[in-house]
Amino acid sequence: MTTLGRLLREEHGSATAELVVITPIVILMLLFVVLCGRLADTTLRLNDAAHQAARAATTARSPATAASDAAAAAHAALDQAGVACRSLTLHTDTQGLRPGSTVTVTVSCALGLSDLTLLGLPGTLTRQASFSSVVDVYRGTTATPAGGPAR
Questions:
Q1: Residue 90, CA atoms < 13 Å, CB-side half-sphere
Q2: Is 90 in contact with 101 (CB distance < 8 Å)?
């Protein structure tokens, strides 16, 4: 009985056993931190894309051109930043694109979670960013004034 009692009381190797148990938990926590950081970075890049799209839309001369310029600017900004959206939706509110009006661009991006970390999470997460920009009050127009050349 003394030999069995002594074996039960010995703690040799307990640190190794604790390390084996806690290592996967620590790795999962680190991967979760990476996921949170990548989501924050993607949100910042979406904000930048919305900003660039709104600025591109304010330089257009017509609402249709403003919407296409905004889409091109947002796609270019996201491609350059390396953000891969499963689906990208842009909404451009030009308010008639009159000098002094505000153009608002909303960018919505569905992100696949499987490539964000090594966790292989299923599904998508939708992030959205919006930016408003004022159309220059002193910009020229494409309309020809009565009796004069176009500006």
A1: 27
A2: no
Query: Rounded CA gap, 125 and 10, in Å?
Result: 50
Rounded to the nearest 5 percent, the helix, strand and coil shares of the chain are: 50, 20, 30
Whole-prediction pTM:
0.74
The 10s digit of each residue's pLDDT in 37-58 is 888 999 999 999 999 999 999 9
CA 95 – CA 102 distance, rounded (Å): 7
Q: How far apart are CA 127 and CA 112, in angstroms?
A: 11
Degrees (nearest 5) of the Cα angle 51, 125, 33?
90
What is the residue extent of each domain of the chain? Answer: 15-134
Q: Which one, of 112, 109, 113, lies nearest residue 128 by Cα?
A: 109
